[in-house]
Amino acid sequence: MNHFELFGLPAAFAIDAAELQQRYRKLQQTLHPDRFANASQRDKLLAVQRTSQLNDAYQTLRRPLSRAEYMLELRGIDLQHEQQTLQDPEFLMAQMEWRERLEDLNSATDVLSAQSELDDEIKQLQTELESLLESEDNDAAANVVRKLKFMHKLDYELDAKDF
């Protein structure tokens, strides 16, 4: 059973986060190992395994980037352990520009401005990714995931800036 099936959701990039959380809590209550305290060792072990699977599935589906990677994995494209680099010269140039910009940040105002611009770019890429996943253009979607990974790394580095 895949993660979407576990939660009774369609295998789509755009999911209702509140509904996912509600279904997670309901399943968590049903499957929690404490409910099997008086059960056999086998049933206790199964409850622990199911709870672990449920938690993994929830963590995967609740974050858009990991959800997209999972969808691609279901379609036969595994990005988790790949060593392939993005071959988009325009994006590679933008990466270099972002790196230089991060080095030149001198104030909290600069960080906020960069954060706002980065958030806009991430939203734009996520919109593009949703469209590509819906049309099942998996190779193009995989490239957008690679771009988003870079953007999320930049986001993390921006958050770490202290002024």
From TrEMBL:
<dbReference type="GO" id="GO:0001671">
    <property type="term" value="F:ATPase activator activity"/>
</dbReference>
<dbReference type="InterPro" id="IPR004640">
    <property type="entry name" value="HscB"/>
</dbReference>
<comment type="similarity">
    <text>Belongs to the HscB family.</text>
</comment>
<dbReference type="GO" id="GO:0051087">
    <property type="term" value="F:protein-folding chaperone binding"/>
</dbReference>
<dbReference type="GO" id="GO:0006457">
    <property type="term" value="P:protein folding"/>
</dbReference>
<dbReference type="Pfam" id="PF07743">
    <property type="entry name" value="HSCB_C"/>
</dbReference>
<dbReference type="InterPro" id="IPR001623">
    <property type="entry name" value="DnaJ_domain"/>
</dbReference>
<comment type="function">
    <text>Co-chaperone involved in the maturation of iron-sulfur cluster-containing proteins. Seems to help targeting proteins to be folded toward HscA.</text>
</comment>
<dbReference type="GO" id="GO:0051259">
    <property type="term" value="P:protein complex oligomerization"/>
</dbReference>
<dbReference type="InterPro" id="IPR036386">
    <property type="entry name" value="HscB_C_sf"/>
</dbReference>
<dbReference type="GO" id="GO:1990230">
    <property type="term" value="C:iron-sulfur cluster transfer complex"/>
</dbReference>
<keyword id="KW-0143">Chaperone</keyword>
<comment type="subunit">
    <text>Interacts with HscA and stimulates its ATPase activity.</text>
</comment>
<dbReference type="InterPro" id="IPR036869">
    <property type="entry name" value="J_dom_sf"/>
</dbReference>
<dbReference type="GO" id="GO:0044571">
    <property type="term" value="P:[2Fe-2S] cluster assembly"/>
</dbReference>
<feature type="domain" description="J">
    <location>
        <begin position="2"/>
        <end position="74"/>
    </location>
</feature>
<protein>
    <recommendedName>
        <fullName>Co-chaperone protein HscB homolog</fullName>
    </recommendedName>
</protein>
<dbReference type="Pfam" id="PF00226">
    <property type="entry name" value="DnaJ"/>
</dbReference>
<dbReference type="InterPro" id="IPR009073">
    <property type="entry name" value="HscB_oligo_C"/>
</dbReference>
